[in-house]
Amino acid sequence: MLTRFDIETAVRAALLEDAPWGDLTSEALFAPEAHADAALVAREDGTLSGAEVFMAAFRLLDADVVVSHLAEDGTRFAAGDVLARVSGPARSVLQAERVALNFVQRMCGTATLTARFVDAVAGTGARIVDTRKTTPGLRVFEKHAVVCGGGRNHRQSLSDAVMVKDNHLAVVTGGGSSVIDSLRALRARLPHTTHVEVEVDRLDQIDDVLAGGADTIMLDNFSLADLRAGVARIAGRAVVEASGTVSLETVRAIAEAGVDVISVGALTHSARALDLGLDVSIDASGAPS
Predict the structure, then answer these.
(1) Where are the domains of the chain?
(2) Cα end-to-end span (Å), the chain
(3) Percent of the chain residues topping a pLDDT of 90
(4) Tens-digit pLDDT profile for residues 217-237
(5) How far is Cα 83 from Cα 73, in angstroms, rounded to an integer?
(6) How far is the C-alpha of 133 from the C-alpha of 86, rounded, in Å?
(7) Which single residue of 5, 47, 224, 274 could bond 111 by disulfide (Cβ 3.0 to 4.6 Å)?
């Protein structure tokens, strides 16, 4: 969950990074009393995420900047829509502009891409979820954006749930242990409330993973035929997740194979920033002569 602490910590760091000794341009160009009004305008269709982050960039720099008429996160918008209005000291509006846009453009990009995946599987019952393939330090923002787009979050971190991947299994079997025994021993050491997911890349691994007590089985990079076979073999005894090179072109067919969850790393590692602009007008009556 994106908290005020998360927002303020990241935005303060970004403001300091962008203007460690002030904004030389605005401070030299405008008198302190110069005023600016601006509008956050969509240049393309999309889904909003980062409303509070956008506001925080201005508020944390200067409490005299007012941000109003902001649409709610999760709102779908069209090119040309005004998403927010900003008013306040020109120096502060222009200093915070880039930081505010950097956050909201990237978050909207992730939300918009997620919404396209969610729309693509509508009616199938499959959930679209993200992964841990996030920008270091910004995971909570990107995962919030996924939820704004109608998706769901996978693990927030390694601390949230057990996920035994192919490399874990390679170490287990390389040491001479069986998959079944290792998973059962893992289960015995965990609290009963802890969810266990196991990744497989072949159909013949499924029976051992089920016997080991997996709650979710991830079918990684399976063909559509093998996905259908995997769903039939699991037969409701575990949640079925599909993963690996999922695209907008393939996701519908993957969903129709009968899986419960589709994890899409591209939601966070490949979403492009959405084209939003802050159109500013300046009252030059207070500008230095």
Answers:
(1) 4-114+272-286, 118-269
(2) 48
(3) 92
(4) 999 999 999 999 999 999 999
(5) 11
(6) 33
(7) 47
Give the span between the Cα atoms of 289 and 286, in whole angstroms: 9
Residues recognised as catalytic: 98, 133, 165, 199, 220
Residue 282 — pLDDT band, cuts 50, 70, 90?
Answer: low
What six digits make up the tokens of 180?
A: 């079944």
According to the model, what pLDDT value does residue 168 have? Answer: 92
Please give the structure tokens belonging to residue 39.
């509008």
The contacts of residue 67 (CB under 8 Å, 6+ apart) are 54, 55, 58, 59, 84, 85, 86
CATH classification number, 118-269, choose in 3.20.20.70, 3.40.605.10, 3.50.40.10, 3.80.30.20: 3.20.20.70
On the question of pLDDT at 23 being above 50, the answer is yes
CATH superfamily of 4-114+272-286: Quinolinate phosphoribosyl transferase, N-terminal domain (3.90.1170.20)
Q: Which tokens in the block code for residue 258?
A: 């009968």
Is 52 a residue whose pLDDT tops 50?
yes
What secondary structure letter does DSSP report for 220?
E
Cβ–Cβ contacts within 10 Å for residue 167, how many? 9
Task: Say whether pLDDT at 286 is over 60.
Answer: no
What pTM, to 2 d.p., does this model score? 0.94
Q: Give a three-class secondary structure readout of 82-149.
A: EEEEEEEEHHHHHHHHHHHHHHHHHHHHHHHHHHHHHHHCCCCCCEEECCCCCCCCCHHHHHHHHHHC
In whole angstroms, give the CA distance from residue 267 to residue 60. Answer: 29
| For residue 159, pLDDT beyond 50 | yes
Residue 184, SS3?
Answer: helix
* Residue owning tokens 């904004």: 23
